[in-house]
Write a structure and sequence with these properties.
The complex is a heterodimer of chains A (461) and B (386). Chain A is an all-alpha fold and 461 residues long. Helices cover 69% and strands 0% of the residues of chain A. In chain A, helix 3 crosses helix 9, helix 4 crosses helix 9 (261-287) and helix 5 (107-131) crosses helix 6 (157-189). Chain A starts with 17 loop residues before the first helix and ends with a helix. Chain B is of the alpha+beta class and 386 residues long. A 4-stranded antiparallel β-sheet of chain B has the order 2-3-1-4, sandwiched between helices. In chain B, helix 8 crosses helix 11 (352-369) and helix 10 (329-338) crosses helix 11. The longest helix of chain B is centred in the N-terminal third of the chain and has 28 residues, at 96-123. Classes of the chains: A mainly alpha (461), B alpha+beta (386). At the A-B interface, helix 1, helix 6, helix 7, helix 8 and helix 16 of A face helix 1, strand 2, helix 3, helix 4 and helix 5 of B.
Chain lengths: 461, 386
C-alpha cells in the first residue's frame, strides 16, 4: 500500500469546521448536569469522604493508627506522595515538552492532562503534610524570620522538595490558566439558549477571561509567553521528580543510594502519568462525544510513549541489579535479592509484570488502537507504578542495618482509606472540571484544524 | 453595556484566514496604525502582515529569572552562612551545590509568574471587561469562527466614510460600527471592588490571628502541651513508692564508676581509706561548689545545721560535733556514699573524686569553724603578707 508519509494526517477527524469544533467541546458546558453526572459525583465525593473521615480519626487519635513504624517509618504516605506526583508529570510533559517538539497532536489532550497534573499534585501535597503528624505546623517548612533565629535546612532534599513541588504546582496552574483565558473568552461570547447556562457561570467566564479580545496584538505576546512557559516548565518537570528521587538517593541506605534514581524516577513518572491520562481520556472522549478531537491516533501516540517509558523503567530495574552485583557490595546484593525473593517478592513481581511485561503488548498495533485493551494495560500500569513506589519505600527500609531491628510493614485500614480518599478527591475534581471548563483547548484545536492556517504563500499567489 | 453615540472604530468581518491575512497586509500598507486583527486563534504570519515589532516579553523573563536566582542565593547565603552558620552533614558553611536546586526553582517561579503577570497587567492592561469591543456582534463572531479587523477612530488616517469604504474594498462580509461605552470608569476603583478588597483584608487578618492564636490551642492541636507522661520531680500513681523518677536497675554500674569496697556496711567500721586527693586550691574550690549544691540545703553553708529546709525536712546534726570532727576522712566518704539515718546516698550524684573533694571541704569547714589560736595567727600572718 502506497502512503504519503510527508503529509501529516488530519488531527481533527470528520472534516469539522472551526465552529463545529467549538460546539463539540463546549457542549458539556452548555447543558445542565444530568442524573448520571450527579450519580458519578456522589460516588466520588463519598469516596473522598471516606478519606476525610480516616484523616480526621488519624489526627484525633494520632498517626499510630497507620501502619508506619520503625523501621518502616515512611510507609503509605510517602508511597502515595511519590505516586501522585508521578501522575502529575504527564500534564506538563504533554503541554511543555511536546509543545517545544512541535507535536501538534498535543492540542487535543493538553488541557485535560494539565488539569490532571494540578489535581494530582493537590492529592500528592496532602501526603507529606499529613505524614508529619501535625499538618497544622506545616508553615515551619517556609524560611520565615522567627524569634528562634532558626532557618530551614537548605541542604536537605526534603526542603528542595517543598520548593520544587510548590513551584511546580504554581507554574502548572499559571500555565493552565494562561491556556484557558482565550477559551473563557469564547465561552463568554457564546450565544446559547437562555436559561441553559446559568448567569453565575457566564459571569465567572467573563471574570476569568479578564476581557480577552482575541486581538492579534495580544496573541503575539501570548504565544511568546506560552513558549517561555514551556521552556521553563520542561526543565522544571524534570527537576521535580529528580528532587523527589533525591529524598531517597541522598540518604545512605542500600536500595535508595543509587545515582540512577533521578532518570529512573522521571521516566517512571512520565510512564505512570501517561497511563493515567489514557485511563481517564478513554472515558472522557466517550462520555462527551469528543472522539473526533481526541482521536484514536492521539491515544496510539500516547501508548507509544507508554511503551517507550516502560522500557526505560524496565532498564532501570535491570541496571539496579547489575550494579548490585557489579559493585561487589554484599549488603547491596542482599537488599536486591531480598527485594526480588524476600517477604515482599509478591509486590516486586506485580511491579515488574505490570510495568515491564504488560506494556509489551503495545508492540502490536491492534492492541495499541483498541480502546478496551489499552484501558486494561493503562490500568495495570497504574497499579504497577504504585507498587514500584511501595517496593522502593518498604523493601529498602524493612531490613535495617541491625538484624535485631528488622521489621515487617503492613498498612492498616486507615492507610487504605486515605489512599482511597485521594482517588475520590482526584476524580471529584476531574468531574467538576469537565462540567465547568472546556476539557479540550478550544483555541488550540481550532488552530490545528484543516484549513485553519493561511495557505502557503506560493500556493496562495 | 450602555453606549454613547461617539464612534470608537469600525470593524469588519472576513470568512477565511487567507482573506484576513490579505486584509491585514493592505490595511498596514494603507498607512493605518491603530488597527487590530481579532481571530479566534493565533493565525501564523499575522504579526508580519500587521507589521508588528517583535515582542520584548523575553527580556522581562530574563531579568526576573536572574533576579530569582540571585535573590535566592543571597537569601540562603545570609541564612546558612552569615546569620546562623551550622555544620550540617559535614558540608561547608556555604554549600553552593546544595543551593542549586532551590535556586533553580526560584528562577523558574519568579520568571514565569512575573512574565505572565507583566503580560496580562502591563502589556494587555487586563482586566479590561469595559472595552468597547465587548458585547458586540463582531466580538461574538471572532470569538467563534470569523476573522475580523478593527480600525480605531483614534487613528490619524481615520475617516468614517473613507474607512468603511476601504474595508468594503477589501472584501469584508460584514461591517459594524463600534460605539464608545458610556461609563468607562475602570471597575477597579468602583466602590464595590474597594469594599471587597477591604473585606478580604479584614477576613485574612482575622483568619490569620484566629488560626495562630486561637485555633492552634484547641484540642487536638494542643495535644503536644498535654501529654500522658511523668515529668521530672513529679509524683506517680503507677509506681508503688509514688515516685515518678525511677532508680536505675540494681547492679547498674555507671561509666568510670569505681566499686566501693565497704558498700552496704551499716555502721562505721574504721574505714581504713585515706583521702587520695591533695588539699589543693582547685580541689577545695570544686569541693565547695559541690558541697553548696548537694549538701548545703540541709547541712547549711557552714555545716552548722543551719538548714534552708528547716521545718520541711528533719534537721541533720551539725558537722562540727566532737564525733564528726574525730572521724577519719574515710568515714565522711562512707556517709556520702551510703547515707545515714534520713540522709540518702549521694553516690549517684557525686563521683569518687567528687566525694573526696567534698570530704576535703568538710574538713576545711570543720577547721575554720573551730579554729585554734595558731590557726588564727597564721591566717592573719598570711593576710598581712598579701
Amino acid at each position: 500500500m502506497q502512503q504519503d508519509y510527508t503529509k501529516e494526517p488530519s488531527l481533527v477527524e470528520g472534516r469539522l469546521t472551526i465552529g463545529e469544533i467549538e460546539e463539540l467541546i463546549a457542549a458539556p458546558l452548555d447543558s445542565r448536569p444530568g442524573f448520571k453526572y450527579y450519580l458519578a459525583l456522589t460516588i466520588t465525593t463519598s469516596v473522598m469522604l471516606v478519606g476525610g473521615v480516616c484523616l480526621a480519626l488519624s489526627f484525633w487519635f494520632g498517626i499510630g493508627l497507620w501502619g508506619n513504624n520503625q523501621p518502616v517509618a515512611w510507609g503509605f504516605p510517602i508511597v502515595n506522595f511519590v505516586f501522585w506526583v508521578g501522575i502529575g508529570h504527564a500534564g506538563t510533559l504533554i503541554s511543555a515538552i511536546l509543545f517545544l517538539l512541535r507535536q501538534r497532536w498535543r492540542t487535543g489532550i493538553a488541557r485535560f492532562a494539565e488539569a490532571m497534573t494540578i489535581f494530582a499534585v493537590m492529592c500528592a501535597g496532602i501526603f507529606p503534610v499529613i505524614h508529619t503528624g501535625r499538618p497544622w505546623l506545616a508553615g515551619y517548612l517556609l524560611p520565615y524570620p522567627n524569634q528562634h533565629d532558626l532557618w530551614v535546612n537548605f541542604t536537605s532534599p526534603l526542603v528542595f522538595d517543598v520548593f520544587a513541588v510548590s513551584t511546580y504546582f504554581t507554574v502548572s496552574l499559571v500555565f493552565w490558566y494562561v491556556g484557558l483565558i482565550p477559551d473563557f473568552a469564547t465561552l463568554r461570547d457564546r450565544v446559547v439558549e437562555s436559561g441553559v447556562v446559568s448567569k453565575i457561570k457566564k459571569t465567572l467566564y467573563k471574570v476569568f477571561s479578564l476581557g480577552w479580545r482575541h486581538s492579534n496584538r495580544h496573541w503575539q505576546h501570548y504565544e511568546k509567553s506560552y513558549m517561555i512557559l514551556a521552556g521553563f516548565a520542561t526543565p522544571l518537570v524534570l527537576s521535580v521528580h529528580t528532587i523527589v528521587s533525591f529524598d531517597f538517593a541522598v540518604s545512605v541506605l542500600y536500595g535508595w543510594h543509587t545515582t540512577i534514581f533521578p532518570p529512573y524516577f522521571v521516566a517512571g513518572a512520565i510512564f505512570s502519568g501517561f497511563a493515567m491520562v489514557v485511563t481517564v481520556l478513554v472515558f472522557v472522549r466517550k462520555i462527551f462525544d469528543l472522539e473526533q478531537i481526541i482521536t484514536i491516533d492521539h491515544l496510539e501516540k500516547m501508548n507509544k510513549i507508554i511503551i517507550a517509558t516502560g522500557m526505560m523503567v524496565g532498564y532501570a530495574y535491570g541496571i539496579e541489579f547489575f550494579i548490585a552485583w557489579y559493585s561487589g557490595n554484599p549488603i547491596e546484593q542482599f537488599v536486591f535479592i531480598n527485594r526480588a525473593f524476600g517477604p515482599y517478592a509478591w509486590a516486586y513481581w506485580i511491579m515488574v509484570s505490570c510495568n515491564v511485561l504488560v506494556p509489551q503488548f503495545f508492540w502490536i498495533r491492534k492492541i495499541r488502537r483498541s480502546v478496551p485493551l489499552m484501558l486494561i494495560v493503562s490500568l495495570l500500569v497504574n497499579v504497577g507504578m504504585w507498587f514500584e513506589r511501595y517496593v522502593i519505600v518498604v523493601t529498602s527500609l524493612h531490613r535495617d542495618f541491625l538484624p535485631s531491628s528488622w521489621g515487617h510493614y503492613a498498612p492498616t485500614l486507615y492507610d487504605a482509606g486515605i489512599l482511597l480518599g485521594s482517588f475520590g478527591l482526584f476524580f471529584t475534581l476531574v468531574l467538576l472540571f469537565t462540567k465547568t471548563m472546556p476539557a479540550v483547548s478550544i483555541a488550540e484545536v481550532k488552530a490545528v484544524a484543516d484549513g485553519a492556517q493561511p495557505s502557503h504563500r506560493e500556493e496562495a499567489d | 453595556m450602555e453606549r454613547t453615540s461617539k464612534l470608537n472604530g469600525v470593524a469588519a468581518l472576513f470568512e477565511t484566514p487567507d482573506e484576513i491575512m490579505a486584509a491585514a497586509e493592505k490595511t498596514a500598507e494603507a498607512g493605518y496604525e491603530k488597527f487590530d486583527v481579532n481571530t479566534p486563534y493565533p493565525v501564523h504570519g499575522m504579526d508580519d502582515a500587521m507589521k508588528l515589532p517583535p515582542t520584548k516579553l523575553g527580556f522581562v523573563t530574563l531579568a526576573f529569572g536572574l533576579a530569582g536566582a540571585l535573590a535566592m542565593l543571597g537569601l540562603m547565603t545570609w541564612m546558612m552562612t552569615i546569620d546562623y552558620p551550622m555544620v550540617i552533614g559535614g558540608k561547608p558553611f556555604w554549600p553552593l551545590p546544595a543551593f542549586i536546586p532551590v535556586m533553580f526553582e526560584a528562577t523558574v517561579l519568579l520568571a514565569t509568574v512575573v512574565t505572565v503577570g507583566a503580560m496580562l497587567a502591563i502589556y494587555f492592561k487586563f482586566p479590561a471587561n469595559a472595552h468597547p469591543l465587548h458585547d458586540t456582534d463582531y466580538m461574538r463572531a471572532v470569538s467563534k469562527d470569523k476573522f475580523g479587523i478593527m480600525i480605531e477612530a483614534a487613528d490619524a488616517k481615520f475617516d468614517e466614510l473613507a474607512t468603511v469604504e476601504f474595508l468594503q474594498s477589501l472584501g469584508a462580509k460584514k461591517i459594524e460600527k463600534i460605539r464608545e461605552i458610556a461609563d468607562p470608569e475602570p471597575p477597579i476603583f468602583s466602590k464595590r471592588f474597594v469594599l471587597l478588597l477591604a473585606g478580604v483584608f479584614v477576613a485574612v487578618a482575622l483568619g490569620t490571628y484566629g488560626t495562630l492564636n486561637k485555633a492552634l490551642f484547641y484540642t487536638p492541636f494542643d495535644w503536644m502541651s498535654y501529654q500522658p507522661r511523668v515529668n521530672a520531680q513529679s509524683a506517680s500513681v503507677f509506681f508503688e513508692d509514688g515516685f515518678g523518677m525511677r532508680e536505675p536497675v540494681e547492679g547498674t554500674v555507671a561509666r568510670d564508676e569505681v566499686l566501693y569496697e565497704y558498700a552496704g556496711a551499716e555502721t562505721h567500721p574504721e574505714i581504713p581509706v585515706v583521702n587520695p586527693l591533695a588539699a589543693t586550691k582547685e580541689n577545695l574550690a570544686e569541693g565547695e561548689r559541690l558541697y553548696d549544691v548537694y549538701c548545703s540545703p540541709c547541712h547549711g553553708y557552714h555545716g552548722a545545721a543551719e538548714s534552708r529546709l528547716r521545718k520541711q525536712f528533719p534537721l541533720p546534726p551539725s558537722l562540727h560535733t566532737e564525733k564528726a570532727r574525730t572521724w577519719e576522712d574515710g568515714d565522711i566518704y562512707h556517709v556520702i556514699h551510703e547515707g545515714q539515718n534520713t540522709m540518702p546516698s549521694y553516690a549517684r550524684q557525686l563521683t569518687e573524686d567528687d566525694r573526696w573533694r567534698v570530704a576535703l571541704y568538710v574538713r576545711a569547714l570543720q577547721r575554720a569553724m573551730n579554729a585554734s589560736e595558731a590557726d588564727v595567727e597564721r591566717a592573719s600572718e598570711e593576710a598581712s603578707d598579701e
